[in-house]
Amino acid sequence: MTSTPPEVLPVGRRVAYWRGRRKLSQQVFADRLGKSKSWVDKVERGVRSLDKVSTLQEVATVLRIDTAVLLGRDVQPAAVIERTAEVERIRAALSRYEIALGRPAGSRPVLPAVQMARQVAHAWTTFQHAQYPRVVDLLPDLLADVERIHAADPVAGRVPLVEAYRITASLLVKLGAPDVAWLAVDRAMIAATGDRVLVAAAAVQLGQVLRASGQVRVAKSAMLAAAYRIAPPVIEFGLPPELSLCGALLLQAALAAARHGDDAAVAELLDEAAALAARVGDGHDHHRTGFGPTAVELARVAAAVELGYGGDAVAWHEKATTRDGWRWLPAEHRAAHLIDAARAYLRTDDPVSAGRALMEADRIAPAEIRHRPASRDLLAQVARDPTAPTALIQLAATLGVS
C-alpha cells in the first residue's frame, strides 16, 4: 500500500504529518501553540478548520515549515527565486561579448583607469562586507566598464579586468553557481596570463571554483603549481604581498586535500602556510586574500570538518576566535568561518552551539546565511533539532527553510 504524498493531503492531515516529522506529541505541539490537545486533535481529523492566516502562520512556525508548505502550494520560497535571478543577471552580464563581436558599447563612456580602479576596489569592499545583493547590482555595469577599458588600453585595463572577474567568481561560488563562476575565473586566468602576480591572485578564485565543482585533485595540483610559481626563492626575503598570495594558494590546496581525505598533505600544507603567515602577520589584506596567522587557523577548522575531526575543529575554532586577528578579518571571512564552525559543532552532536554559531554569522553578515544555499541548508538542518535555539527556529521560518 502506498502512502499519500504530504503535498496532496488535507491541511489537517498535513499538520499531523509534519508534527510527526518533528517528533512532537499532540500535547507538546498544543503547548507550544498555546492550544489544547483537543484542539490539535480536531484540526488533524479535519473537524476544525484552520481558517485564520495568523493561526496558519503560528502552526507553520512551530512546525518549522513555510506556510506555503502547510497549505500544499508548490511554490519556491522568495529567497530561492531571488538567488536564481541574481545568478541569471550575472550570467547575462558575462554573456554579452560586445567587444569581441564589435557590438555598439552604448552611451557609457570609457572611464579613466584610476576611476575604474576605485570602482573595482569599491566592489571588493562591498563583497567583503557580505553585501551580496549590492554586488549583484554593481557587477553588470562594472564588467562592461572593465571590458571596455581593457579593449581601449590593454595595459592600464588589465588589473581592473582581472580583479572584476575575481569578484564575480567569488560571488558566484557563494551563490552556489560554480558553473557560471568557472566562466568568470577562466576569463580572469586568461587575462592574467604573463603576469605572475595577477595569475596567482586569480588562481585563488580558481581554487575556490574547482573545489566547489568537486574537482579536488585538479584543485590541489593547480594551487600548488601557482603557489610555488609566486613563492620567493628565499622565504626570509619575500615581500608580504607575494607571501600572502603563496600562503592563500597553499590554503586552497590544503582544503582540496582535505576534501580528498589526505590527512598528511593537509597537515603539511597548513604548516607550510603557517610559516608564511608568521612573516605576514594579521591585520593585512594583500591582494584581497585576508591571509595571516588567523586565516591559517580558520583553514585548520575547515579542513578538520572536511576530514571528519569535529572535536579538533571545535577546539581550533574556539581558540582562533579569541585572537586579535579574528576581529580584523572582513565580515564575509568571519561569517563564512562561522558556517564551518556550525558544521563542526554538529559533528560533535552539539546543535545548540551550532545554532549559536549560525546566529552569530547572521549578526555579522546576514547575506551569508540568507543568500548562500549551503548556509541555508545547514540552517534548516540545525533548526530541525528539538534543542535548537528558538531564535534560530524563527530565523529558519522567516527564510522559509525547513
Which structural traits does this protein have?
3 domains, Serine Threonine Protein Phosphatase 5, Tetratricopeptide repeat, 434 Repressor (Amino-terminal Domain), mainly alpha, about 0% strand, about 400 residues
Q: What features would you describe in this structure?
A:
The chain is mainly α and 402 residues long. It folds into 3 domains: 6-71, lambda repressor-like DNA-binding domains (434 Repressor (Amino-terminal Domain)), CATH 1.10.260.40; 79-316, Serine Threonine Protein Phosphatase 5, Tetratricopeptide repeat, CATH 1.25.40.10; 330-402, no CATH class. The chain has 23 helices and no strands. The chain has helices spanning 11-21, 26-33, 37-45, 53-63, 67-71, 78-94, 98-101, 113-128, 132-152, 158-174, 178-192, 196-212, 216-230, 240-260, 263-280, 293-307, 310-320, 324-328, 331-347, 351-364, 366-370, 373-383, 390-399. Residues 1-8 have low confidence and may be disordered.
Compact overview of the structure:
The protein is mainly α and 402 residues long. Helix content is 73%, strand content 0%. It is globular and about 75 Å long.
Topology (elements, then pairings):
Elements: H1 11-21, H2 26-33, H3 37-45, H4 53-63, H5 67-71, H6 78-94, H7 98-101, H8 113-128, H9 132-152, H10 158-174, H11 178-192, H12 196-212, H13 216-230, H14 240-260, H15 263-280, H16 293-307, H17 310-320, H18 324-328, H19 331-347, H20 351-364, H21 366-370, H22 373-383, H23 390-399
Helix pairs in contact: 1-3, 2-3, 6-9, 8-9, 8-10, 9-10, 10-11, 10-12, 11-12, 12-13, 12-14, 13-14, 14-15, 14-16, 15-16, 16-17, 16-19, 17-19, 19-20, 20-22, 22-23
Organism: Micromonospora rubida
Domain HTH cro/C1-type: 15-70
Keywords: DNA-binding
